[in-house]
Each structure stands twice: as structure tokens, then as C-alpha cells.
Amino acid sequence: MNRSFVIAGSRLAVGALVFLALVGTVQAAEGKDVYLKNCVACHQSTGDGLPPAFPALKGSEMVNGAADESIKLVLAGKPGTAMVAFGYLSDEDLAAVLSYIRSSWGNTGDAVTADQVKALR
After folding, report:
1. Phi (first) and psi of residue 30, to 5 degrees
2. How sure is the predictor about 106, in pLDDT bands with cuts at 50, 70 and 90?
3. What's residue 87's pLDDT?
4. How far is it, in rounded angstroms, from Cα 101 to Cα 9?
5. Would the CA dihedral through 114, 65, 43, 27 be positive or negative?
6. Alpha helices of the chain — where are they, by DSSP H?
7. Cα separation, 121 vs 114, whole angstroms
8. Which of 24, 43, 60, 80 has the largest count of CB atoms under 10 Å?
9. 28 band by pLDDT with thresholds 50, 70 and 90
10. What's the pTM value of the predicted model, to 2 decimals?
11. Helix, strand, or coil (residue 50)
């Protein structure tokens, strides 16, 4: 009886992990699409940017740091620099593109959710 429960629980856990992996894969694909439409001209497909006007996203402390700082930056831009505000994008698109950036080119930042973006909008 316990063995059945463990097997059923294991199947449930594996199913949940597969679901989360699929959601992450979809978000990454959507994030890449948003990146290619809005960010690639300045920050390049490699994330290396075009310094000094367009800094690298690859290995960036901002990208790999607290998600809140990245969210605020893309929502409001950065006055006095070439970084424009992308607040016109949906919470979902901003979460997807930030998650893509934070997990690409060797970056190790956590994924961003639409709820996190909404809370800072």
C-alpha cells in the first residue's frame, strides 16, 4: 500500500516537473521572440551589447542580481542613457523577456513572473 502511494506520488512529482519544464520552455521561446523584436538591435543576439552606449547583458550584475532592479529598468528606462522605457509591453511579455535574458548567455538570474512585473508597474 505504501509502495503504491510512493509510486503515485513519484508520478505526480515527475508530472509536475515536466509541466514546469514545459512552461519554462514556452516562456523562454516567448521571451526570445520579445527580445528579438525589441532588444536585439542594441544588446545584440549574443548579449554583448555595443558598449558604451548599449551595455552587455551577458554577465551583467544588473541582470544576475535582484529581479526587481531589472524590472524597474525595463519599465521606466534610464534617463540620460540610451535605455528607453518598455512599459508599453504587457506584464507577460516583460516577464518573458526578462526571464530569457536572465537565463541566456551564461546568466544565472531567476525567472521573472508577470505578477512581479505587475507589482512594480
Report:
1. -65, -40
2. very high
3. 96
4. 34
5. negative
6. 2-38, 40-43, 61-64, 67-76, 91-102, 114-120
7. 10
8. 43
9. confident
10. 0.79
11. strand
Q: Which domains does the chain have, with CATH numbers?
A: 27-120 (1.10.760.10)
Angle at 120 between CA 45 and CA 115, to 5 degrees: 80
Give the burial class of 9: count Cβ atoms within 10 A of its Cβ; 0-12 exposed, 13-18 middle, 19 or more buried. Answer: exposed
Q: What tens digit of pLDDT does each residue of 42-52 get?
A: 999 999 999 99
Please give the angle made by the CA atoms of 57, 60 and 65, to the nearest 5 degrees. 120
3-state secondary structure of 54: strand
Question: Grid coordinates representing 49?
Answer: 551589447
Which cell goes with 80? 540620460
27 bridge partner residues:
none
* Average pLDDT of the residues of the chain: 87
Q: Measured at the alpha carbon of residue 64, what is the angle toward residues 94 and 75, in degrees to the nearest 5?
A: 30
Instruction: Provide the grid cell at 18.
Output: 515536466
